[in-house]
Amino acid sequence: MGFTRSRFLGGKPSKAPLLLPFLLTVLLVGSQGDGGAMDNGATERIAEESHRQDSAYLLIFIMLLTLTILTIWLFKHRRFRFLHETGLAMIYGLLVGVILRFGIHAPQSMSDVILSCAVNGSPATLLVNVSGRFYEYTLKGEVGQGKGHQVQDDEMLRKVTFDPEVFFNILLPPIIFHAGYSLKRRHFFRNIGSILAYAFIGTVISCFVIGLIMYGFVSFMKVVGQLGGDFYFTDCLFFGAIVSATDPVTVLAIFNELKVDVDLYALLFGESVLNDAVAIVLSSSIVAYQPAGDNSHSFEAMAMLKSFGVFLGVFSGSFALGVVTGVVTFTKLRDFPLLETALFFLMSWSTFLLAEACGFTGVVAVLFCGITQAHYTYNNLSPDSQDRTKQLFELLNFLAENFIFSYMGLTLFSFQSHVFNPLFIVGAFVAVFLGRAANIYPLSFLLNLGRKNKIGYNFQHVMMFAGLRGAMTFALSIRDTATYARQMMFSTTLLIVFFTVWICGGGTTPMLSFMSIPVGVDSDQDNARRSTKHESAWPFRIWYNFDHNYLKPLLTHSGPPLTATLPACCGPLARCLTSPQAYEEPKFANFCFNNVYRGGQETGTTVSAYGLVLGILSKLID
Amino acid sequence: MGFTRSRFLGGKPSKAPLLLPFLLTVLLVGSQGDGGAMDNGATERIAEESHRQDSAYLLIFIMLLTLTILTIWLFKHRRFRFLHETGLAMIYGLLVGVILRFGIHAPQSMSDVILSCAVNGSPATLLVNVSGRFYEYTLKGEVGQGKGHQVQDDEMLRKVTFDPEVFFNILLPPIIFHAGYSLKRRHFFRNIGSILAYAFIGTVISCFVIGLIMYGFVSFMKVVGQLGGDFYFTDCLFFGAIVSATDPVTVLAIFNELKVDVDLYALLFGESVLNDAVAIVLSSSIVAYQPAGDNSHSFEAMAMLKSFGVFLGVFSGSFALGVVTGVVTFTKLRDFPLLETALFFLMSWSTFLLAEACGFTGVVAVLFCGITQAHYTYNNLSPDSQDRTKQLFELLNFLAENFIFSYMGLTLFSFQSHVFNPLFIVGAFVAVFLGRAANIYPLSFLLNLGRKNKIGYNFQHVMMFAGLRGAMTFALSIRDTATYARQMMFSTTLLIVFFTVWICGGGTTPMLSFMSIPVGVDSDQDNARRSTKHESAWPFRIWYNFDHNYLKPLLTHSGPPLTATLPACCGPLARCLTSPQAYEEPKFANFCFNNVYRGGQETGTTVSAYGLVLGILSKLID
To answer: Which residues form the signal peptide (chains A, B) (predicted)?
Structure first.
């Protein structure tokens, strides 16, 4: 095998893929190098041309982001709040998509002539014998029947519409990790019961409500003759799952800026973050049972079981990984902030990849990894690294987010096989609205029966309104666009995302004032006032005590020394396991914690065997 | 065209691609999901399996990096200096390569059966008709004759050996930018004459010396019958160009740690950074004239001209881009450090991409962009962003560097078509040694005729010894491995890199003490002592004055106000163009600068029309 030149050799003279004003230079220079016929020595030149094109395409995205940033700055500078940066990124993406789609016609070139030859099978790799020389081809996918002649027209657009794997392996992890890492844990855990209810039960309700409504619409469309292909009940459920994932980005940025009531913030944030995880697990469970067609009965029980198992496995796995990172950063690595930051970054990413490689859900893993890291590892980092990691993930999150949203705008025009079906779209909007309502209102009613501080109607209306669909919905729907059903779902999803981000996102500020939601709340003050009330449910109080008295001292340098919290008989062990720093630094946060949860301190539980081993190991390394 | 599923559908059951201890879990889970035959509904499962594999491969690299970081920390902690982190990364890469190569045998699977069909041409896209369904294939490259049967065995190894584009578009830019951004400009510019001589004349000398010696060896090999394919004179020159690029990473990390004499540091650093740029331009010029075979006469003059033109174009282009960035950050963006950092990052990267898209050399552009950004833009950034950008590029540089080096180790075993020819390898080592000597010693002799502070013999020996080959040599050689000549070059280059990084890199510390080079020099003190001497050549002094009196005040918030430096007649214009901050902040650096270059202050040149327009624009925005 004499090659590794896996560069794409689609050497088409790049007649102006770039019409942005910045890129006029590219245009002038880029159109000079004609690929020409593919003779023996010309591959190098074609490869160079292809490299130049790749750079130009990447440049388009960078320019889009730059433009977005400049406009965001202008908006922030002028305190203009009706259009959030993500909505803006989408608009720019749309514009560039229009230009690429309609502004440019790539001329046909010799090197792209397409030959058809009939073989019986579609292997992943194909060898083609061209007058004695062998060329290797790899499978790209199936092409719609009778559309073969269109392939070369769409080369450029296809290059811009890139691999969905990039979303899942590169762009999503930093966003989700950042969500976990910057989570205000106190508020989150205070409302954990309600958040879990909205995220788990609510998403499942929403998924099934949307699925059923869509099944009704699709059946109707079949009767009317508006349906151009197969659309099973599982497809409807799949659609329900992907559009049930609400997006934490847009609304929460506004909430953060306006300092909205912390409980509402925590509820919405917690719901939309966990939501994503639930939607992924749900949709992949549905896909796993897809081949059975519309046989929906055997699916339900199994999928639920599987989802539950996966979720538990992922949770414990990522928790364990987070703990391992905590132990690693226990060491004197803190003398080298660069190494520490790099390690922190790699460990977080590897959590994601490990989970994906194991067949778990990376998003769930990386979310809980973020929370764990913020809770334990963060305390072990040097102050320099604490800043660095925060800033790094803030930046990565910002870039990835804006990239995804501008890409969304772009795909509306660059994607090749949109199926816009008016009936389906209307149905989807109705279903999404009803699904959200079926999630929020009944659950809030039930939750209010048990909650001391009730979720008011104004809160419920805002939660209903603020259920934007964003990055995760998009990523899930672009992942597979092979069949008619999936294409229709993708196109509809795109419209739902646009609508919710622009209309609901833009209307959040007026909505808040209309619903008279308190803004400008100082979260710390608010917190100090409320945290004395023992509002958490009792299982969480027990966990807090255990965590504060045993886990934190064992895994971090902060917290009370184990010698104070363990019973006297474990004295020598406790001394051996406690970090020397723990005796020195009575931190304010721990002090607060102590005040709140002193009640459980008498419970003299011993540390788990697992924790012990880890702790001893880390002390030995130290 | 009914798809965008461009994921690679090579669904092979992943029988244990991972033998690292960490990954046992992956191994157990990953081997369960068998791809099975490619029936209609199974593509989803195959795609999922492929996604799982991709994650696992990425995970291998992340784990390699993690392992490297931990060992680096151990080394730093124990003050062990004989093996640098890059050498270490290579060793780990080697080990994993061995495991992947010999430890794992992927079983054959139905979905990889390879079919040959004869067509007359090798188009970039191929449509295959399989019982009425069309599948699209893309060209991957040419396969060596008679090696067709090996293709499926190497699937896994090929997946690990990924696209060279990634090196050029993703991994190299941060390394080179960081080199420019963290450049100690004062020391660099003081020795600019010598650095340019070594980098330009020296690299060309080295390239031709190595090329000629290799041509001798190759001719000898042809006579002896040791040569298995074509090897033209241009191939020899190409080899000379790529192995002439010395690597700034390894040696300079050691120099930095030991605080070696600043002049030696500046010489070596400047040479090896500019070196890379020259080697790229040289090698691409040679490739451009490659088809003419061994007709070397027409090549020389043209290539030189072209290289010179490209270099000038790139320099002015990247300078202009850097200035534009400076103007942009002029605005009140400094109130939003996140936006500022993101913009800074994107502008730097887009410089690279823009240059590549224009057919220039991105590395050169991004290097000078880094220098310009550090000189102008850095002064306009908010203090928060100054820290952020420094730390960000430090981290990116660190990760990219270690990734490249561990990847180098990996390719020694994972690359499929190595050609190790003992005679060629011996010849290459001799040629590289002689080429380096022909660069350093004669040039140093000539330079010493003009220099006030001579380059001593001990300096020359260290420069000779410290000419490591690293990332750039590797990236250039892996870029095209289609022909026999290129494969032999790639394998040999790999060995040269290993040898120089381990032996020369490891021997730097002993070498320094053996040559009695002063270490532990405080660069600032040393600088203050020398900067009063007017050591720079006169064209640079004029430039300094112009820069300090006009460009800096025009483009940044620092420097003396233009009202003081421009002649009185330009008064109103000067007031309009000077930033209000310039009047307020008499900075220490400017004060020093003023002392040194006061001589030129009388020269009352007016600012260029270009600068005026930019400046006015920026004031209007401000």
So the answer is: 1-33
Distances (CA, A) of A189 to A195, A371, A536, B278: 9, 11, 7, 58
Q: Using a CB-CB distance cutoff of 8 angstroms, which residues of chain A are in contact with residue B351?
A: none
CA distance A122 to A126: 9
What lies within 8 Å, CB to CB, of B119 at 6+ separation is A115, A117, A128, A129, A130
Instruction: Give the residue extent of every domain in chain A.
Output: 2-159, 176-522, 586-622
**Which residues sit opposite A138 in a β-bridge?**
A125, B138
Number of A:B CB contacts under 8 A? Answer: 447
In this structure, of A137-151, A494-508, A573-587, B496-510, the range with the lowest mean pLDDT score is A137-151
Answer yes or no: do A125 and B112 touch at CB < 8 A. Answer: yes
Contacts with B63 from chain A: Cβ below 8 Å: 350
Whether ipTM > 0.85 holds is no
Least Cα distance to A549 among A573, A569, A574, A532 occurs for A574
Which of A19, A26, A66, A125 has the most B C-beta neighbours within 10 Å, making it the best mutation to test the interface with B? A125
DSSP assignment of B482-534 equals -SHHHHHHHHHHHHHHHHIIIIIHHTHHHHHHHTT---S--HHHHHHHHHTT-
Coil/strand/helix, residue A507? coil
Cβ <8 Å between A9 and B139: yes
- Residue with the bigger pLDDT between A413 and B197: it is B197
Side chain identity at residue B574, one-letter code: A
CA nearest to B246, candidates B42, B582, B613, B505: B505
Q: Which pair of structure tokens corresponds to residue A356?
A: 């994906």
CA distance A35 to A12: 6
Is the pLDDT reported for residue A492 higher than 90? Answer: yes
- Burial label, B367 (beta-carbon count in 10 A; 0-12, 13-18, 19+): buried
Q: What is the residue-wise DSSP string for A291-332?
A: GGTT--HHHHHHHHHHHHHHHHHHHHHHHHHHHHHHHHTTSG
d(CA A433, CA B305): 66
- Helix, strand, coil shares of chain A, percent, nearest 5, are 70, 5, 25
- Torsions phi, psi of A163, nearest 5? -55, 125
Structure tokens at B219: 């001719």
Closest CA to B289 of B241, B346, B250: B241
CB contact under 8 A, B391 and A394: no
Residues belonging to chain A: 622
User: Which of A54, A126, A147 should we substitute to test contact with B (largest number of B Cβ atoms within 10 Å)?
Assistant: A126
Residue B167 burial (CB < 10 Å; 0-12/13-18/19+)? buried
Contacts of A70 in chain B (CB under 8 A): 328, 343
Best residue in B88, B111, B125 for a mutation probing chain A (most A CBs within 10 Å): B125
CA distances from B593 to A105, B526, B541, B559, B578 (A): 55, 16, 11, 9, 19
Contact B505, B437 (CB under 8 A): no
Contact B151 A130 (CB under 8 A): no
Question: What is the distance in angstroms between the Cα of A532 and the nearest Cα belonging to chain B?
Answer: 35
pTM, rounded to two decimals: 0.74
Q: Is B111's CB within 8 Å of A128's CB?
A: no
Q: Which residues in chain B have Cβ-Cβ distances shorter than 8 Å to A482?
A: 2-3, 5, 43
Contacts of B232 (CB under 8 A, 6+ apart): B290, B293, B294, B485
Q: Tens of pLDDT along A375-429?
A: 777 877 788 888 888 888 889 988 888 888 888 888 888 787 788 888 899 999 9
Beta bridge partners of B136: A141, B127
